[in-house]
Amino acid sequence: MALRFFGKDPETNGDHCSTVWLDEEKQEFVIQGWKADEALQAQCLVSGPIPDTEAVVRLPLRMATQIREALDAAERAPVH
Known about the structure:
Elements: E1 4-8, E2 19-23, E3 28-32, E4 34-35, H1 38-45, E5 57-58, H2 64-76
Antiparallel strand pairs: 1-2, 2-3, 4-5
């Protein structure tokens, strides 16, 4: 699996921070973010259950540029 790196949270020291990648082979976004606390998870559960194999993560809005770049790259990636 080759991940295409798009960026880390621009306001961190580069360690333990939110990060965005694109896996073009699997056609997936890969996101590292802060774990949601119980209150946020409870709000998300209103929309439906969260399977044990999934998680709610949070990313700062200041990462919009990196997320947008990953979205644009995903739209240009060949679909298989």
